[in-house]
Design goal:
Blueprint: E1 8-13, H1 20-30, E2 40-45, H2 51-57, E3 63-67, H3 84-89, E4 94-97, H4 100-105, H5 110-122, E5 126-131, H6 135-140, H7 143-155, H8 160-163, E6 167-170, H9 184-202, H10 204-209, E7 211-215, H11 223-227, E8 234-237, H12 244-254
Parallel strand pairs: 1-2, 1-8, 2-3, 3-4, 4-5, 5-6, 6-7, 7-8
Helix pairs in contact: 5-7, 7-9
The protein binds 1,3-dihydroxyacetonephosphate (13P).
Amino acid sequence: MNRKYRKTIIAGNWKMNKTLSETKAFAEELKPVLGKHKWCEVVLCVPFVNIPAAVRLFKDTRVAIGAENLHFEDHGAFTGEVSANMLKEVGVKYVIIGHSERREYYNETDFTVNKKVKAALEAGLHPIVCVGESLEQRELGVTSELITYQVKCALAGLDAAQARKIVIAYEPLWAIGTGKTATAEQAGEVCQTIRSIIRKEFGARVARAVTIQYGGSMNAKNAAELLAQPDVDGGLIGGAALKVPDFLQIINAANQE
Ligand code: 13P
């Protein structure tokens, strides 16, 4: 973390978990114990149907609500899809784009990621762009090349003012939902690579200001060590964001004085 230059963001990605009543129960459990979390922004990315309720439930707090996906078109004949404007109007602040599960199961590509990033920015949302390598790619020694390609594609065509608004989440595929976390050094190294790509593309000021998260089996036990890396500015958390005590411990790790 480097709190002087950029925001630390602890974001939960609920994926396809929690009904409306479970969302309410989570909010009721979290709110009284949350505290001020003055050093980090807390975000909950929830299933589309739970967004309006989540916005209402957290409206008297500093917890921001995010979506887990969006369509890049404004409106039209795209059955089952949701646009950036729709999300903005119901109070969404962040939107996850290009999560590896979407890339793997729903044909998300680096090109659709770029279109979605532009659509989100246009509507005034902050994209959380996910990048990450598979185990095979890491073993082949192409992690850095792959991450460079993914980041450059995602941010292609943006100006510096737009690039500043992006959050990048480094999520190695082999660490997602596996209980196998990247070491703090591995996470720190790739996050540093991401910052240097942004520096080359948009300059030092933008690179210094962009929040880069780590995601992949981040939990109450390993969060502090990961967040101690200078280029790891927060976490995108799956499983551990479904339980209040676990999520709270990660938030607290980001708030250590
Ligand atoms: P887990 O924390 O469950 O490994 O999930 C990480 C993730 O995919 C967050 O987007």
